[in-house]
Amino acid sequence: MKVVHLNTYDGNGGAGRACLRLSDALKASGIDSKVLVYYKFGQNPKIDTFSKSPIQKAKAVYNILAERYFAKWLSKSVKTPFSLQWFGRSVIHHPDVKNADIIHIHWINHGFLNPKFLAQLDELEKPIVWTFHDSNAFTGGCHVRYGCENFHHQCGNCPILKISGKNDISHKTWLRKQKAYTELNFHIVAPSKWMAASIKFSSLLGTRKATVIPNTIETKIFKPYVKSEAKKILKINPDKFVLMSGFMPSKNDKHKGTPYLIEALEILSRRTGIQKENIELVIFGNKENVEMPEFPFKTTFLGTINKDDHLAKCYSAADAFITPSLEDNLPNTVMESLACATPVIAFTTGGIPDMVKHMQNGYLAEYQNAEDLANGIEWLYHRPNKEEIQKAARLSILTDFSEEVVAAEHIHLYETLVDLQPK
């Protein structure tokens, strides 16, 4: 069976990582799987691109920048990503797409597959699978909804757009998607139960069949290391209780919930029984700069980590990974942390409860409740049997998210769809 995966970028972002991880898992299970991207930044030989020649690259860069510039120009000054999908390119004549038994779509924004070129895939008469890594496929443009329910209807009156009304750009985009989806039959994969439930409320795709299959992770790379040794690698005292968190653009960032983390740490630092000098905060993904907020504990900024094996050691050095994200499908950082046997403390939101089991392999705090986030950290800080929770974290990934498990679920879906094809 030949499967071709389509994604805008090669591992640049969570969807790209998830796409490549799935392809590798499928290949390990004997499937002929290939990843094709619109624009390739890296040198990974396992990934091919539609934009090889200088002219094709220039056209792709133009589409990507134009899509992002116009969206930013038409949107309010908010952190919520929005796609217009005015720009795009056809892929139906590429030999790998034409020869595939299954076309598996992933994240295809930023000038890649707009509604017109999506609908064009119908001409190939092949089973199409589409994994929704965010909400954009069933909204009028936004990727993260933050409680907005306009997608239940036909969008319009968009809170993100500068010029908002019944027939605004979000409604017009909704209409373009409706036309494309009417012409194209595809099967939806939702990486989380939360995403599957969201789709059911969608006016665009609420009646479509969706299968919940999670993303996977390289369990032989993201694995536990001896915690005391991992702390030494980061030049951290092995006796310190280490809290780790991921990329934070600024304290005003909305999507990542940074203000809640700051507040939770402030609350924690004032509690009886918490020794401030015994706690260290480690942040990866952003170097220390003037925009970074001040934290009540000693803080180490690791910057961007490009090597997964070193990232795994960083996770292993932590006693807890904290993610205050306010809306996330199935965040890679949570899965990576658990795979490295590091418990996760997070809000009860999105697909995080699919991975974090309350007080078993981590702590699920009440949504947008900084006090409860602090409770989770304190719970683990005073926990006498930390090793049991660490083992439960690793086991939860091996049981439900390993390469073999996730590949088998996808292969079953592919075979079912191929069998349903007219002979």
From TrEMBL:
Domain Glycosyl transferase family: 232-388
Domain Glycosyltransferase subfamily 4-like N-terminal as annotated: residue spans: 13-219
Domain of life the protein comes from: Bacteria
Annotated Pfam families: Glyco_transf_4, Glycos_transf_1
Name of protein: Glycosyltransferase family 4 protein
